[in-house]
Specification:
Length: 399
């Protein structure tokens, strides 16, 4: 009996052996479970693509833009008038007509002037006759003087008479020239090309010398004329360029520079009349057309952005820029020229045309992929191409 008991005890395994076998089985079970586990959730679900709002950087001129309304006028506006008075019998042009240099514009009744020419010519003929007689007398006395047949005093009187006759001829010739000029003044001739903008008298009226018959806008240049407040004149410079646009068609525009500033303000409006010479004015900017002039006064040029686009990097102002191809963001340091209530003016660090993030800047990191606000969210792509089985684990990861 004792031998049988001893034999059975000899075949029983020790406690340390049983513990080792249990640990081995546990490790095997854990390995089997790990092989059957699906891949980590971070490998299947990518990081969400954050939506952002962006604006396009546009360079703006600095300072204040002043816009005024004016009209187009000719640089040289001339009132054509007669130099003598009389009755207007003919006016050959009307408002809007083009006039060439040397063209007859109007005529006066020239009866009196023609009569004056006839009288002057008659006086000239009489003076010429007296001059001929006086010359002949001197010629007769001259050979007789040395022989004593003519007294010296008599000869001197003949010479004086000849000189007086010569002077009378010169005076008569001047009278004829004056009469001819007076006759020429009864015809009004344009001294240069231009366009008739106004008329001041009608045929049949008796006009005085100097009264405007027609007003002529000469060709060769046009001005945009504005009534400008004193503060604008004080802030502007003669070198500033003025953009002039046709009020009825914003596509028709040109540029110009200040050509003339009135030295005295208007007594009613207290504004100064400023003439801007137009460079190559379009044909559509006719005389009298209403135009709009814009000028930029002072300030610093830069890129204006909403204040929400501004962040900080290394203790300096910065903004997030978006690459439109890769849809990734990058942090860029910038120089801020000025701060406003809801906008900042960037002087350096950005180029016109770049996309700048204005919303969602607090959660971005360099190189992060984003999408524009309002665009659909792309479908996430799993990290493995294996198809899941019924339990949800990819077939390639099946134990």
């Amino acid at each position: 009996m004792e031998a049988l008991i001893s034999s059975s005890r000899g075949t029983r395994k020790s406690p340390s052996f049983r513990a080792g076998a249990s640990l081995t089985g546990a490790f095997a079970l854990l390995a089997l479970l790990a092989a059957c586990q699906p891949v980590e959730e971070s490998q299947l679900v990518p990081e969400p693509i954050r939506p952002v709002r962006v604006v396009t950087a546009e360079e703006l001129p600095g300072g204040e833009t002043v816009t005024l309304t004016g009209n187009v006028q000719a640089q040289d506006d001339v009132a054509l008038a007669f130099r003598v008075g009389g009755q207007l019998i003919e006016r050959t042009v009307n408002v809007g007509d083009r006039v060439r240099a040397g063209q007859v514009v109007a005529r006066l009744d020239a009866v009196n002037e023609r009569n004056a020419i006839d009288a002057a010519r008659a006086n000239l003929a009489a003076a010429m006759a007296r001059l001929v007689e006086a010359r002949n007398t001197v010629q007769r006395y001259e050979p007789l003087l040395p022989r004593g047949f003519v007294a010296r005093a008599q000869f001197d009187r003949a010479v004086e008479a000849r000189d007086a006759a010569q002077a009378q001829v010169s005076a008569a010739e001047a009278q004829v020239s004056t009469a001819e000029n007076q006759l020429g003044f009864t015809t009004l001739i344009a001294d240069g090309p231009g366009i008739v903008t106004a008329r001041g008298a009608e045929p049949g009226e008796v006009v005085a010398a100097g009264r405007m018959i027609v007003r002529l806008a000469r060709e060769g240049g046009r001005d945009a004329v504005f009534d400008v407040p004193a503060r604008v004149i004080e802030a502007a410079s003669a070198e500033d360029e003025v953009t002039v646009t046709l009020s009825t068609d914003a596509k028709v525009s040109t540029t110009g520079r200040v050509r003339e500033v009135s030295p005295q303000a208007d007594p009613v409006t207290r504004t100064f009349k400023v003439r801007v010479g137009l460079a190559r004015p379009p044909e559509a900017m006719r005389l009298g057309s209403t135009v709009t002039g814009s000028i930029q006064l002072g300030g610093v040029a830069g890129i204006s952005l909403p204040t929400s686009a501004l962040t900080a990097s290394q203790g300096a102002p910065a903004v997030w820029t978006l690459d439109p191809e890769s849809r990734t963001v990058a942090l860029r340091n910038v120089d801020v020229a000025s701060y406003a209530l809801d906008r900042v003016l960037i002087s350096q660090g950005l180029e016109p045309g770049e996309l700048v993030v204005t919303a969602g800047v607090q959660t971005l990191r360099p190189g992060q992929q984003v999408r524009l606000l309002g665009e659909p969210t792309p479908n996430p792509t799993p990290a493995t191409d294996a198809a899941p089985d019924e339990t949800g684990a990819p077939t390639g990861d099946r134990p």
